[in-house]
Amino acid sequence: MSLFKRQLERDIHSVFLNLAEFGEKGELAGHEQVPMVVETLALEMPSGSDDRPVNYEGITVYVAASDVPDELLAMRKTTFRHEEWFVLSSGCDCGMKTIQLYRERV
């Protein structure tokens, strides 16, 4: 790994996912104690096909790609805080993953 990539990895954990400032640890996709930042995601999704109103909740999770190396594919199930969610989207840029999750609100 290059010097730049090692420094970027350190910066992700010490700056962007700083637990003392705004980060937290939790479970994501079977990985325990992952440093992350979580935000609420506003969703506008169509209702169910059986004419009943469906309410969804969504979140955006930011993690270091090295902490959750799995490829999280859209519309597939995963876990967040040991609960079942669906992946809306997942992308990675400069070692930081942005994962949008949703589920039906009960």
Task: Report on the architecture of this protein.
Helices cover 13% and strands 46% of the residues. The chain has one helix at residues 3-16; strands spanning 24-28, 31-41, 56-64, 77-80, 83-93, 96-104. The N and C termini lie far apart (45 Å).
Describe the structure concisely for a colleague.
With 106 residues, this protein is mainly beta. 13% of the residues lie in helices and 46% in strands. It starts with a helix and ends with a strand.
Radius of gyration: 15 Å
Q: What is the mean predicted local confidence, pLDDT?
A: 89
N to C succession of SSEs: HEEEEEE
Number of helices: 1
Could you list the spans in which at least 5 consecutive residues all have pLDDT below 50?
none
Percent helix, as a range, is 10-25%
- Class by helix and strand content? mainly beta
Number of strands: 6
Largest sheet: 6 strands, antiparallel
Distance N to C terminus: 45 Å
Shape: elongated
Strand order of the largest sheet: 1-2-3-6-5-4
What share of the residues does DSSP label as strand, in percent?
A: over 45%
